[in-house]
Here is the input.
Amino acid sequence: MGSLLFSFLSRHLRFTLPLLIPRPCLLSPSKVDYKLLKVPNTCYLSTKEGNTSFVRAKKDSKMYPRSVFAAGTAKRTSDFFKRKSGDELHQQPKNNKKAFNIDTPLTRAEWKNLKENSKSPHRFEITVINDMLNAGGDINVAKSLLAFVALETGSIPYELLLKYLAFCVKGSHHSEVFDVYDIMKSRFKALDTGAYSLFIKGFSRTQRWKEALPILDTISKVIVPSTRNYGDIIAGAAHHGDSVTAWTLYGEILDKGLTPRQDTWQTLFECSLSNPGNDERLQSILLYMRDNQIYPDESLAKSIKAWFERLESIQLSEEEYVQLKDMVMKDIIEGQDVFNKTTPEELEIFKTFVKRKPAFDVVIDGLNVANTITKGSPSEKLLAVVSELEQQGLSILVLGRKHMLHPSQRWDRYHMSLVQKKAHCFFTENISEDDPFLLYATLHSGNHCKFVSRDLMRDHKACLSNSATRHLFFKWQRGHQLVLNRFSPGKKICFQKVQSYDTIIQTDRTSWHIPYDEDGGDRSSYEVPQKWLCLTRVD
Here is the structure.
């Protein structure tokens, strides 16, 4: 074979010179890595010389990986032959249908006119809602469409309600999902599995995720629920801190002989970053993937990597939380200077108010939020924040002062009326300070409860009697405080990211993670470093 190759090289030297060209190699300057190039209109012999391969190729051919088992080979081969045969041109989808592009809600007369001029009036509503579902339209346009149908026919057909439900679930319009659920449960004796699946997905994304469990049981009486149904509720349970329910449902998937979805595995890995107690269960997932020859996709692989390299959680343990709560109540809420900020009567009224309410998910310092950013009126900003959190299905407490209830240019009556409809509200005297009330309500509601404020609480932290408790307070604060990042009227509310790990020196058996200050940096005492030194022991 060598003689054939040298014979070929001598006869076709002008074509073969480009075959071997030196390419720099970083490993050693004395070694040269050779790259094989394809010469147009040349046919190569199939041979091997050392570790260099020459692959038979014809004009316009593709250089494929050597192994037919390498990922992507089949797809590239298929695409290549489609291009060669011209099939790709014939397989392009033809979609000459004109989609409805409606940006604002329409009146009954406008909808009627649009329907009469459409090509298929009998399917007009379904066509419009399908277009909105595909394009991600405005929820208010969809509502005006349903209002038109109800006025024209006296009711809304099942198919249209189902499409509207899919639209609401896809757009995370949680309150509308709840409304459709109430309507369909009252109007129809039974729903199809598609509707039940949508309700499971919609409820699982909110604080009402537990209501998806009986829906899952209803499906189970007819068919085996899909892994997507299970996965949606597992995500809801895991994201709301109920790991017992999440892992119980995961066990049901395996018991029924179903293959879990990769996004379910990803949820379990991500939500276990702060709970080392699930390590054995997570390792069993990896063994399951190995035994069934399942390869994780890139996003799952990154979650597995993050779990493997995880840092200590920012969340307090139950013991730490109880300790902090007791000390805050003693040193801050019941401390000697608290009545410089309120009165005993007002504080007792507030405590009674909180005890009569369900546990809150988030407590808002209304005045602090309203005055944080200059754009928009204070009442408009407060309403926007409350509306964003309400959309997430959260139980909200807004703390304010009584002057906020007096209509003015800053405090619009309509805005404040909506705030009180969307959230529980408590308004203190104008001379009182909000912080003791905010801390009491947040800590009383449980370790899951967060608070919204830009106040750094330095004075209150200083009131705590020992350094260990002050460190706990600072850790709790960084894991529970939501800070408004920016506000533009009419746009989505954004909060600064809350870190899931604690910024302290951390170690396991083989590695150290050390946060450090950059040279020339200017870090205040209430700030934490943003750079880490990561050391790994190699035996």
In short: Confidence is low (pLDDT under 50) at residues 1-66. The chain has four domains: 2-67, 108-308, 318-495, 506-536. The longest strand covers residues 396-401. The two ends are 47 Å apart (CA to CA).
